[in-house]
Amino acid sequence: MVQSVELLLDDAADAEVRRQWQLLAEAGVHSPAADHRPHVTLGVARQIWPRIEHALAALDFRPISARLGGLLVFGARNPILVRSVVPTEALLDLHHRVFSILGPCPGVPANVRPDAWTPHVTLARRLKPQQVGEAVHAVAADRDFPATFVGIRRWDGDRRRDWPIAGRDEGR
User: Which structural domains are found in the chain, ordered by start?
Assistant: First the structure.
């Protein structure tokens, strides 16, 4: 399964993404379940060693202002609909620092490397190609909106649990 390091959104941005998930569900499009939490994945690995976890916990983290932007579609066979995150210097710096710690772990995919990372929040997964239009239509009227990244968490996909690393985490 997946081990990841993820940025958490402030309450208002979290609620906005959840509202968009609801719009997608009402349109019959598969979106993350209620037990999921909106986030931006900073890094992924097959395994994150304890020494890496300690180094991540020592990161100097301060909230980062951002803007959640336009819609993107990743993939072709099983498309994923996402809302882009407009990258800022602070966000790219944090990603670089996280990647420099996480990079030695096994199973780090190429698309999380600093020169290939596309920051985003997932809106809908496992779409059938014919659903892409419906999914885009369900949330296309929504405009960009501000967000603040308020914390970093670790997600353990094997155990299906998360815990805070830095910043604020209200444990939704």
Answer: 3-159 (3.90.1140.10)
Give CB contacts under 8 A, 24+ apart, made by 89-95. Answer: 90/64, 90/65, 91/64, 91/66, 91/119, 91/149, 94/7, 94/42, 94/59, 94/61, 94/64, 95/42, 95/43, 95/119
Q: Are the CB atoms for 19 and 169 separated by under 8 Å?
A: no
DSSP string, 44-65: EES---HHHHHHHHT-----EE
Ordered per-residue pLDDT tens for the chain, 172 residues: 689 999 999 999 999 999 999 999 999 888 776 678 999 999 999 999 999 999 999 999 999 999 999 999 998 888 999 999 999 999 999 999 999 999 999 999 999 999 999 999 999 988 988 899 999 999 987 788 999 999 999 999 889 899 999 876 644 4
φ, ψ for residue 49 (rounded to 5)? -70, 155
Beta strands in the chain (DSSP E): 3-9, 39-45, 64-74, 80-86, 120-124, 145-156, 161-167
The answer to whether the pTM exceeds 0.90 is yes
